[in-house]
Every structure is written in structure tokens, then in C-alpha cells.
Input
Amino acid sequence: MPFFMFALLIVMHGAPISDKPVIPEKYKKWIEEEVIYIITPKEKDAFYKLESDRERDLFINAFWAIRDPTPRTSKNEFKEEHYRRIAYANKAFARNSPLPGWKTDRGKIYIMLGEPVQILKFSTMQIVPVEIWYYQGSPRHGQPPIFRFLFFQRGGSGEYKLHNPLTDGPRALMPFTASGDLDQQDADAFEYISKNISEELAEAALSCFPSGAGRGLKEARSMALPSSILLGQVHTFPQKKVKDDYVAEFISHEPTVEVSYSDSYISNRHIVSVLSMASDIFFVHLGVEPEVLSIDFDGDKYHSDLKIFFRVIDLEEKTIFQKEIDYPISLGKEQYKEALQRSFQFQEMFPLIPGRHKLRLMAKNELTGEFTTLEEEIVIPEAGALWMSPLILSRHVEKSSPYSEVTKAFQIGELQIYPSLDNHFNRRDTLYLFFQILGLDPMLREKSMVEISFSKGGEKIHSLSKKISELWTDRDFIMELPLEKMPVGRYQLKVTLAVEDKKDSQLLSREADVFLQSESLRPPWVITNLGPPPEDAEYAYILGNQFFLKGKLTDASKILEHVFISSPDSLDYVLSYARVLLAQSDYKKTSEILAPFASSKIEDFHLYLYLGKSSQETGKIEEAIHYYQKALSLRGNNPDILNNLALCYYWLGDEENALEAWEKSLKVNPDQAPIKKIVEMIKGK
Output
């Protein structure tokens, strides 16, 4: 075997297998052919970051929706016109060109700018074939009020090229090369064309800006540089007509549904709280009240369908957790009447690893397309740190059964809290204030105190203090604060942890605004999911995967091993643990934990992908081939798997099947220079 090929095979052997899909041909065609001239750089960059066909389909829908001039109709005139232009360009401009019409210079301009308002054609023996296209511009989008482009057949044959007044000049329109320097050639050509053919054409050879009256050579030459600049900017004309801010929204909230980003947004009230619930595991509790929730009537039921998607990212924009939830709503007539008087609040909770994160959420009403979003920073403290939770203010708190096998958002032990999302209270209400304090050692606990104060306009008007040792729990604090003696108005509520009898001894504090009013307040209609108890292995499984996505393999391995031991028959648990083991190059243990599933009839892509990789790395080549083939049958051709399959065949001396697999890989992803070299060397034997 040649040394070069041997080196390539060694490198391939150590390469990880990625199960990220290559962009399928139809999406590649969409972005590299169909919309290449109208897509903005921000949109293009975002599209290449998408990882699934579903996301790409949703992005494409959003791409066209934001350009739809009549979004409330079923017809998208912009999209129809764009594809009409492509079809026309392919039909009209492919003649005399080796390129399809959409790739020619005339095709590009036609697709970007549409039908010219006027076309002048010149075809004589004295000059090369020429066309001048006139356009009416939009100053609002940075275009001249009127401009023109000149196309010519260089040397008198071939396809029509876009003429650049600065670099081509009038001389390029002549069928022969004259003597003298370039400036003199341009001067001679300009004079000849002006006198014998058209002053307008002569001027167009030096300027994209019509004058209305013929310019002389000197004046026309002064417009050559601005014209060249205009040509350099023409590709931005379609981009300036669209606001691509929706891209950040789309990527941030990892699209769940196609959205009309122009007029369907509604505001919301929300709360995002971090609370410790079990064994120093921190949970994010969130509640969201859309400003509007439209409800449809169908038969004897009133219904709506909320779809919620949220994503947690770290400071490097890496996704470490995401979830999609459906909240179907079905109400009877009496329930509907009651619901009309109240807001809807949906709640959710999930565990999160220590660190500084961002939560991005999108909620959409499937019936109407109305959607709302939020973005909040979340800080999860390290275990053992001195920490105070955000303050949760509520008008209503219940005690739940201590033996419940389910848990809900804002349920802490036996307490079920119903948070106020806007902190508005009636003077007849009792304000229930909940917070947690963690990390107090016994000595500090004995000396610490909590002060709760109300201020108005910077002046403290009411406060109370209690020693930590006198309060009823080690970490969870709930205070009942009657409001009947306080005047209507806005207050600042502050909770402070300090060392007793010491000045400037504040350790921690949290604040919240409180709005006290005289009007009665109706409680929201709360929709929430039920989850297992906080100690359930499902939450540890989520945390283990978060550590893995964060790149903390030791933490991930420790947690996911425990989860696997607790439920060795769960395919989800074993695959998550196997993924960590593969990342740690522990191929033997990977094979061991996956072996019980290998003989089953389970059809799971990742199971056979991981089995194939671990078998290959432990020298079980025939097994690896079997597993890789199974993985390919479930997910389709993946170039990384095909390359490893080919490598396995090659090690067994089966060059025919190895070559077939490598060629399939190149068909999916042609940009693999090392693989091309291997194929060429095998075929050249």
C-alpha cells in the first residue's frame, strides 16, 4: 500500500463519526441556486447552521413569509414572481452560454431586479451586439431614481456579459482592437459610437446614470467610477427590501412552527425562577401569560392549541437543553365563560446544571399564528455556594400531599405556589413571599437574620426582621405579609440576609416591585405539566446530557452511569451513557452496555451507530460492518458512516465494497479531498 494512502487510512481510523446530517440536495439547490441572489448574508449564515430538514422547511417558510406583500392571503406574490423570473432567465438567456440562464449575467440581473422598464438593442457590423437595460430605482432602498446596465458580447460572440464602464469602457464595444493606449482607445470608440451609432450608447459605455442629454467624453468619464461602485452594490438591492431581523428570532428560539413575523407577535407577562428542590439539584420554574389567547369554537367545545418551544444556551451560544411542549386546551361552555374573565398562564419546570445561561422561549397559538417570545438570563450556583433565590410573590399558596408521586412547576415540598407574574395585588390580599437561602453553615445560620422591607420613592416605610434560627425551615422561607394598611401605589420590596448586630454586614439581597391597587384581581387559568418527583432518575438523565453538551465529560459520565445502573433496560438512558463512553474512548464498556440491545428488534439509528463505532475500535470488524449497514438503513447515507464502513471493508481486503462505500460517500458530500484521493488510487491500480 502506498505510504500516502496508508497515512490517510490511519487518520480516518481515528476520526469521530458525526451523525449530523449533510444538507440534502433539494435544500442545497434552494440556497445555492433558487434564492442565491436574494438571500441576505444573515439569512444564509443562519440556514447553514440548521441541523434538521424540519428546521430547514420551517426556515424556508419564514423566508418567503417575511417577503409576502399580502400576508393575509393564501397567495405569495413575491415568491411566484421570483420563480417566474428564474424560469424566464433559464429560457431566455441560456443561448450562446455554457451556463444555465440563471447563472448568466443577464439572468442574475433579471432575477434580482425583474423586468427592465426599457431595453435598447444594438446589432450592427460596426460594434459587437449590445443591450441596454433601464431600471427605475427606489431611493428609499439606496438605489438611484433611474439607472441602466449594458450587456455585450465580448469580441462579437458568446454570451452577453455585464459591462463595467470603468474596466471595459467604450473600447470593449468595438469588434476589433485599436492602436494606442486604453484611454485613447476609449476616446476613439466613444467618438465613433456617438457619431455613427448612438450618443446614448456611447454615454452608457461610460456611465450607468442616464443624463437625459448626451454627455461629452469628459463628463461621461467622470461617471465611470460611481458606475462601477453601483455595479458592486447591485447584489444588495434585493436584500435592502427585506428586514432580516426575524433570523435572530428564528435561531434563538429554534423554530417550532412557521411564523408570520410581521404582524402576529403578542406581548406576555412571565416569571423565570431558579429553585433548589432535591439534593442540591436546581430547577428552573417558569410561568408565561400571553396577552391574548384566541379560542375557537368547534361543536360543543371551545379549544385552542399552544405549542411551546424553549432552549437554554450558554455564553458561547451552545445549546445545552431544549424542549418542545404541546398544551391542547379544551373547554366546555361554562368553562369558556369563566375563562373569558381570566388570563391563561402556562407553567413548566426543568433541571439545569450550574453556570450562567440564557433561556429563549417561543410560544405559538397553532390556530391563529399568534406568537410570543421571551429571553432571560439564568444563573445556577455551584453546590455549596451562599445563595438566595429570586423572590416569588403570590396571592395564593396551597399545601399539597407530601406523598405525591408527581410534581409541578412552583411546587416546593408540600407548598404549591401560584406566582403573580406582574406583582399586582389588591389591598385586601395577603402577599405570600417565598424565597430560598442556601449555603449557610451552622455558625452563620445562628448569627444571621433576614430583613424584609417596603420602600416608596427611596424611603423605607415598613420593615420586619427575623433571625434565621427562628424560622421554620432550613432553606425554604415563606412569609405572609398583609397589605390592608398600605396605601395604593408602587413599592420596592427588598429581602436582605445580614449578620445580626453588625453594621455593613449584608450578605445577600433580592428586590422586586410591588403594585398595590384597589381593583379586584382574578387569578389566571393555569395550565401545567405533571412531572415525576424531584429525585426521579429522569432529571439526572437531563442533567447528565446537559453536562455532555457543555463538554464536561467527567460530570456527565458520573451522573449517566448512575442513571444507567438505576434503569439498565431504558434505551434512552443507555444510549446517553454510551455516547459519553465513546467520547472518552472507552469502547469496551460501550460494547458491554449496548450488547443486551444488539440482539433485539429495536430500530434505533444511534444504537447501531454506537455499536458500529465501538466494534470497529475493538477490532470486531465484521460486527462493525453489520452495525454500520443497519444504521445506514435507518437514516440513509451518512458520509462519515460510509467512510468507516469502507475502511472496515478495506481492512478485510474487500476493495470492491470499500470502493462502493467511498463513492457513495463522495456522492453525498463531494468536498472530501482525502476520500477522492483514495478512490483514485484504488481505481488506478
